[in-house]
Amino acid sequence: MDMHKMGRPKMVVVSSNTLALIGLRQLLQRVMPMVEVDTLNSFAELTANQPEQYFHFFVSMEIVLSERAFFMERHRRTIVLTTTQQETTQMTDFHCLYINQSEQQLLHTLLQLQQHGHSGGRNLPPEMKAERERQVLTRREIEVMVLVVQGYINKEIADKLNISLSTVITHRKNIMEKLGLKSVSALTIFAVTHGYVDVDKV
User: What b/e readout covers 119-128, taking b as 16+ CB neighbours within 10 angstroms?
Assistant: First the structure.
């Protein structure tokens, strides 16, 4: 089955922890709004639900350990959800995501994973590449956006770009309207996931 011919690209979170399922699904949808995220409670549900339709699996460590052969065959697509930051030899073949951290830290880690795995749009499903390549912002708006997500205030942006304060404010308003975003954190996610700024610079 070709996972790219099924409409929106899909990821899945597999865990017996309902709160982890709900929270991680919301964060993933914020980081990659083009993606559909399914949540499943067990490995049995995953195998019954056409697992090859998913381009990434976010799976609790207990499930990966009990079904290691399955996930080893798909280790590039598997992200293990861990409750400890200590690396275990059993998980060295997988990307791991430590879930017992603040929402801001978790968001930053997800953005790092996304940027590492899909830098410059590499390995993204076609639908996401098309969205990324659809240029909606002007060159100047992109410059303003990058400075905003890097934490500069309006006056600093005006000074850096040698434009007036009112022009910066107008650009910010236009950027948010064009992208349909309501907050700087949403703008940060957009800027990082579309390759405009490195996650380590925000």
Answer: eeeeebbeeb
Given the structure tokens 């954190």, which residue do they identify?
A: 185
Residues pairing with 60 in the sheet: 81
Report the residue count for the chain: 202
For 144, residues 6+ apart whose C-beta sits below 8 A from its C-beta are 157, 161, 168, 171, 172, 175
Number of CB atoms found within 10 A of residue 78's CB: 21
**Token pair for residue 129?**
């590449």
Q: The sheet that has 10-14: what strands, in order across it? A: 36-40, 10-14, 54-60, 78-82, 95-98
Residue with the two structure tokens 């930051």 = 85
**Cβ–Cβ < 8 Å for 187, 179:** yes
Single-letter code of the amino acid located at 52:
E
- Strands 54-60, 78-82: pairing is parallel
Asked if pLDDT for residue 188 goes beyond 80, the answer is yes
Burial class (CB in 10 A: 0-12, 13-18, 19+), 3: middle
Give Cβ neighbours of residue 135 (< 8 Å, ≥ 6 apart): none
Residues in a beta bridge with 106: none
Q: What distance in Å separates the CA atoms of residue 26 and residue 21, rounded to the nearest whole number? A: 9
**In this predicted model, what pLDDT tens digit does every residue of 115-171 receive, in sequence order?**
765 555 544 555 545 555 556 889 999 999 999 999 999 999 999 999 999 999 999
